Amino acid sequence: MANKKNKVKFGLRDVYYAKATFDDDTAAVTYDTPVRIPGAVSLSLDPEGENQPGYADNGIYVVLAANNGYTGDLEIALIPESFYTDIHHEEKDSNCVLAEVSDIEVEHFALLFRFEGDVHKTLHVLYNCTCSRPAMESSTTEDSKEPQTDTLSLTASPLANRYVKAKTSSTTPESVYNSWFTQVYEPQGEAETTSEDDEEADG
């Protein structure tokens, strides 16, 4: 990609989920092929964790940052059936009716999405998400119609390897950028940086 910097951040689109499977012995994670969630409206995530100061020599000697991931809401036009069956384990019977089951384990998934910017479009992935069941809401039709949306309450937690999220930068190779939604990107180790690389792309 061209080495240019984003100056603003706007526009959520291209939201995907990829079901995560964890190895019980090693906690290693593998992901299914990402599945698109059409109709993205908004995504709002707040960081979890606080900075804790450590005191020595009559002052703050060190500040320890606790990164517990993010919590927030993903608003979409309509939750796709595949999400209900893949993540919430709703059962589809022989008549293609979806039935909600009470005693299921919460599935974990990666959430991939794009923020559009002024120069290049930053791509993101949250590696370890869970979500609660969405609320059931609707209203009667009045003189003017307002579209109803669905909201997923998300929790994005750190993986065992400590990774929480990743995003593309202004120097991300085109090959990585173009394949972002075909498989979940996993960090490849730290690269040597230059002064130009130290300025991350906004997003």
Q: Helices and strands in order, then pairings?
A:
Layout: E1 9-22, E2 29-31, E3 35-37, E4 40-47, E5 51-56, E6 59-65, E7 70-76, H1 81-86, E8 91-92, E9 98-99, E10 109-117, E11 122-131, E12 150-156, E13 165-167, H2 174-178
Antiparallel strand pairs: 1-2, 1-3, 1-10, 4-7, 5-6, 7-12, 8-9, 10-11, 11-12, 11-13
Written overview of the protein:
The protein has 2 helices and 13 strands, in the order βββββββαββββββα. With 203 residues, it is mainly beta. The strands form 3 sheets. Strands 1, 2, 3, 4, 7, 10, 11, 12 and 13 form a 9-stranded antiparallel β-sheet that branches. The chain has a two-stranded antiparallel ribbon with strand order 5-6. A two-stranded antiparallel ribbon has the order 8-9. β8 and β9 form a beta hairpin. The radius of gyration is 20 Å and the shape is globular. The mean pLDDT is 80.
**Shape by Cα distribution:** globular
Tally of extended strands?
Answer: 13
Strand content: 35-45%
Please describe the biggest sheet, giving its number of strands, its sense, and whether it closes into a barrel: 9 strands, antiparallel
Query: What is the ordering of alpha helices and beta strands?
Result: EEEEEEEHEEEEEEH
Unreliable stretches: none
> What would you call the structural class?
mainly beta
Provide mean pLDDT, rounded. 80
Determine Rg (CA atoms, Å). Answer: 20 Å
What distance lies between the first and last C-alpha atoms, to the nearest angstrom?
16 Å
Helix fraction, binned, reads under 10%
